[in-house]
Amino acid sequence: MTEASSELPPLGEVQRLPRGRPIGYLMAIGGALFFSVNGSVSKVALDTGMDSTSLVLLRSAGAMACLLALVLVVAPGRLRVRRDEVPLLVLYGVVGIALVQWLYFVAIARLPVGVALLLEFTAPLMVALWARFVQHKVLGRGLWLALALALGGLSLVAQVWQGLTLDLVGALAGLAAAVSLATYFVLGEKAVVDRDTLSLAFWAFVVATAFWSVLNPWWTVPWGDMADQVSLQGALDTVTVPMWALVAWIIVLGTVVPFLLVIGALRHVPATRAGIMGTLEPVLAGLIAYWWLGESLAPVQVVGAVVVLVGVALAQAATSGA
To answer: How many CB atoms are closer than 10 A to CB 158?
Structure first.
């Protein structure tokens, strides 16, 4: 997370490091890879009996606990919250963390993992549209090309000429997850002006945990199923692990580790470049789900996915100049 030195910088303060260092790209790719594997792990957990609301509650609470331990070690004073920060933190935690996770779980339960992530990753395009029409920033013609590519690519993925081959609820959940993720970016940009990234993430997960604790009380979580041995399905069908191991993976290796890798990458590469590297996630997730779970796309859908990712990359490039 930090460069080796005798004096650590304040939490959340970005060090003046050379931009575009290879370690930054490796960390960004590593984060995308962990998130990609998590898609298939989560789908197995959902397919073997874990409901989406319990899974998002456990993921939020587990991530909250891990981030709390980290912040307490590094800089506990950063946990203080001003009264005027509360509304933003609540909105950020509910929309940007709680809902985006749940909507993503709904999407992957009904769609191929790669397609669900592809829909969610239209969020950077939505952020660019927000910057153009709400913040009135001049983004150039690249935004319109990005929009055309994203819409055209999604129409190929959905195979609209066949009357939409995707599950409607899953597709709507994926697009709603994109809206929530875009909100996460927009609110996060505002929140980090006064608060470091790690403590912001901690409080966001606190809010998300509280939100789902009300909607899905802890006593409704299927605790009795946690010790059950479940098959990893697909290519790993002969391998069985306890349900709690899948949940632990989702919390630690599917949330905390990739999150910290992405934060670490931002110390070495610009946010736009890190974001573009993040578009590897739907590609990697699709490849992993193809090998592991046997999920596949028609050739025209693969072409559509590539077109969408090009559009997303252009949208991020357009936003970076704003």
So the answer is: 18
HSE, side-chain direction, 13 A CA sphere, residue 313: 14
CA of 72: how far to CAs of 66, 80, 205, in Å?
10, 12, 15
pTM: 0.81
Determine the 3-state secondary structure of 231 from DSSP. strand
CA–CA distance, 176 with 173 (Å, rounded to integer): 5
3-state helix, strand, coil in the chain (%, to 5): 75, 0, 25
| Cβ–Cβ under 8 Å, residues 156 and 297 | no
**10-residue mean pLDDT series, the chain (322 residues):** 35 44 82 91 92 96 94 87 91 93 94 86 82 78 78 75 74 93 84 81 94 95 94 94 96 91 74 68 85 87 85 72 52
Complete DSSP assignment for 281-310: HHHHHHHHHHHHH-----HHHHHHHHHHHH
Q: Using an 8 Å Cβ cutoff, are 276 and 317 in contact?
A: yes
What is the amino acid identity at position 48?
T
Task: Please name the amino acid found at residue 200.
Answer: L
